[in-house]
Design goal:
The chain has a seven-stranded antiparallel sheet. The chain is globular. It has 160 residues and is α+β, with helices and mostly antiparallel strands. It starts with a strand and ends in a 5-residue tail after the last strand. It has one domain. Strand 4 and strand 5 form a beta hairpin.
Length: 160
């Protein structure tokens, strides 16, 4: 299985242990309005969602399973996602549209989830805007698309 860390963080700004050194960088949806504009945030969020879609397209998937799901009620309410999440459960096979919404809610800290399809593909999310993608084969087109959008794709094993 191939595995990557997909982030907005430039690897050149990491120390030898991999810690990100730019402490002025925004890391969370709560930074909108202080460290990042809503326009820049939404552009970055969409780049992450597009990256997921590119990897899935290259593998040939249009649905994946929810393998883990946690919800934080205050943020679910703030994102007005209660109705959407009432139709989501662990084990559900979700569509591209649902995956996009789940990714958005995860990046905005309303939920946390792991998405997987058998031994072919996964998307895991970490804190501070980290995303991990794995696939049964090397996805050079998806990596190129994510990189062209401004994201950084590094070979990396998911901690989840």
């Amino acid at each position: 299985m191939y595995s990557w860390r997909v982030t907005k963080y430039n690897p050149l700004k990491r120390d030898v242990e991999g810690n990100y050194l730019d402490h002025e960088e925004w890391t969370d949806f709560s930074d909108v309005g202080t460290k990042v504009s809503i326009e820049e945030y939404l552009k970055t969020e969409q780049n992450y969602i597009n990256a997921i879609r590119s990897f899935m397209d290259e593998i040939g998937l249009d649905r994946i399973y929810i393998n883990a799901l946690e919800q934080w009620s205050d943020e679910v309410r703030n994102q007005q996602a209660k109705e959407f999440l009432s139709k989501i459960w662990i084990g559900k096979l979700v569509t591209i549209q649902e995956i996009q919404e789940l990714a958005k809610l995860t990046l905005r800290n309303a939920i946390w989830c792991k998405l997987e399809f058998k031994k072919q593909f996964f998307v895991h999310f970490g804190e501070d805007y980290y995303m991990y993608i794995g696939a049964s084969r090397d996805c050079k087109k998806a990596i190129d698309a994510a990189t062209k959008s401004g994201l950084f794709v590094e070979k990396f094993n998911t901690p989840y």
